[in-house]
Amino acid sequence: MRINDDGDQSNIEDRRGQGGGGGGGGIKLGFGGMVIVGILSLIFRRNLFSTLGGSDGPSNGSPAADSQRDPASEERAKKVAVFAFNDSQRVWAAETPQQHVAYRPAKMVLFWDETRSGCGAADAQVGPFYCPTDEKVYLDLGFFDELAKRFGAPGEFAQAYVVAHEVGHHVQKLLGIEGKMRQAQSRSPELKNELSERLELQADCFAGVWGHSTNDRRLLDPGDVDAGLKAAASIGDDKLQKDATGRVRPEKFTHGTSEQRKKWLLRGLTSGKVEDCDTFGATSF
Ligand SMILES: [Zn+2]
Question: End-to-end CA distance of the chain, in Å?
Answer without folding.
Answer: 29
